[in-house]
Amino acid sequence: MTKLSRRLFLSCAPTAAALTALGTLPVSAQAAEIKWDQTYNVVVIGAGGAGLSAAISAKEAGAKKVVILEKMMFAGGNTVRAGGGFNAAIKADYEKAGITDSPKLHAEQTLAAGDGRGDPVLVNQLTEKAPESVQWLKDHGVKFQDHIYQIYGGLYKRARNPLGPRGGAYIKALLEVCKKEDIPILYNTRVVEIIREKLLGGRVLGVKVEEKGGKTLYIRATNAVVAAAGGFAANDRLSGIHDPRMEKLGTTNHPGATGDVLMDLIDIGAGTRGLDYIQCIPGGVPGEKKSPNLFTHVDRFIFVNLNGHRFINEDARRDVLRDKMLDQPETIAWTIVDADGFEQQKNSKGPENEAALKEGTLKVGNDIADLAKKTNLPVDVLTKTIEEYNKAVDTKKDPMGRNPNVLVNKIAKAPFYAGRVTMKRHHTMGGVIINKDAQVIDRRGEIISGLYAAGEVTGGIHGTNRVGGNAMADIFTYGRIAGTNAAKNPA
């Protein structure tokens, strides 16, 4: 019989009854007896997009001493791996694109896409302040491309990308700010416990960490701790506990996204919601080291299964796309673009596609028949599939149900490109409960004093399904809110 650890048990059933039953669990030390090794005003856990923006915002809001704790040996978290698409309804951008948009529409679509399970207060604040977050990033050195587009799973044309290495462009700019503002980042420093005044009660005082060599330290936070450590999509077992389909899938996440800090937060009484909402996106198939990415721009690609047929309207919600692909033969599909589509992908996915081309996992055909041979797809079926799609672009009527707004580009210009994909765990929508000020809420609905959270470690914004492009809006908007409020929260 498998022995369940306390941490795994709490992740499975963080209920009031369970936590009450475990009310005598020991802590590492009595809070009053702890000898603090270091002291800061604000302690931020995680050096991804949410953590960096929280730390900088805390410093700008008056916190004199801010530190970032990062368990990996590098900064960036999942942000550095992201495509970088950032949803925000910015008037100048949508008017230039000739479309109608607003923060209100953005909120309505976000809530609907999450099946009404997102918190309207959090979502409305997100969409109202996302344009401010774009400007804040610009003010801190991030440059953006001058066009917006509908990102994969984005449902509307309101994403923009930074100039530079995708999500890494955000991290690079904010690391420069941290250096300038004298905000230290302690790498290889893993948080093993969040310290409250008493078990399941009182103010959060700081954290216990373990350094690379095994040495432990107690770090005091006189104002607040900000948890911004990301989700758990790299944790096979924890993902499988909450959605059994997920355990055997791979992940797009960095190896540190295992939910350790989420479990620490549950250990001290934080409430959670939505832990079984786990999003997938296409990724490389097992055995292929370098995988192409041709699906970022929805108006440029189609999916076909191993029989050469389309099986979904490619502008669908990410959860719908996930489930349809998991139903396909071998749970694999081909993504197909033409020369113009491939060229546009260079803005965000150029390096990885070039690597895939060299390895041979990205297939290139001089015409559709040649591409069919390279991909082992039936020539007649693939030819007909492409012809039917191009006809749909002409008529603005797609048998698969694509919105006419993304029926704008034919797959017609040689050469043609294709890459195999399958679904991989990408984003965990659930996490700890926060309010509009990014304060963490306990299982009774009460504020845990001295504790804030932002980014993928939180739940309640995306509901059952995250809209593509909303993660960047989330991490930078709530990262800023958490950091600013933490700085203004003295003991």
Describe the protein's architecture and organization.
The protein has 491 residues and is of the alpha/beta class. Helix content is 33%, strand content 20%. It contains 14 helices and 18 strands. The chain has helices at residues 6-12, 16-21, 49-60, 91-96, 103-113, 120-139, 167-180, 236-242, 260-267, 318-326, 339-359, 368-375, 379-395, 470-487, and strands spanning 38-45, 66-69, 86-87, 159-160, 185-186, 189-198, 201-211, 216-227, 272-273, 278-283, 302-304, 332-337, 362-365, 416-428, 431-433, 439-441, 447-453, 458-459. Strands 1, 2, 5, 6, 7, 8, 16 and 17 form an eight-stranded mixed β-sheet that branches. Strands 10, 11, 12, 13 and 14 form a five-stranded antiparallel β-sheet that branches. A three-stranded mixed β-sheet has the order 9-15-18, covered by helices on one side. Strand 6 and strand 7 (201-211) form a beta hairpin. Helix 1 (6-12) packs across helix 9, helix 3 (49-60) packs parallel to helix 14 (470-487) and helix 6 packs across helix 14. The longest helix has 21 residues, at 339-359. The chain is elongated and about 75 Å long. The model is unreliable at 1-28 (pLDDT under 50).
Summary keywords:
491 residues, 18 strands, 5-stranded antiparallel sheet, alpha/beta, 8-stranded mixed sheet
Per DSSP, the total helix count is 14
Shape: elongated
Bin the helical content. Answer: 25-40%
Question: Structural class per helix/strand content?
Answer: alpha/beta
Low-confidence stretches are: 1-28
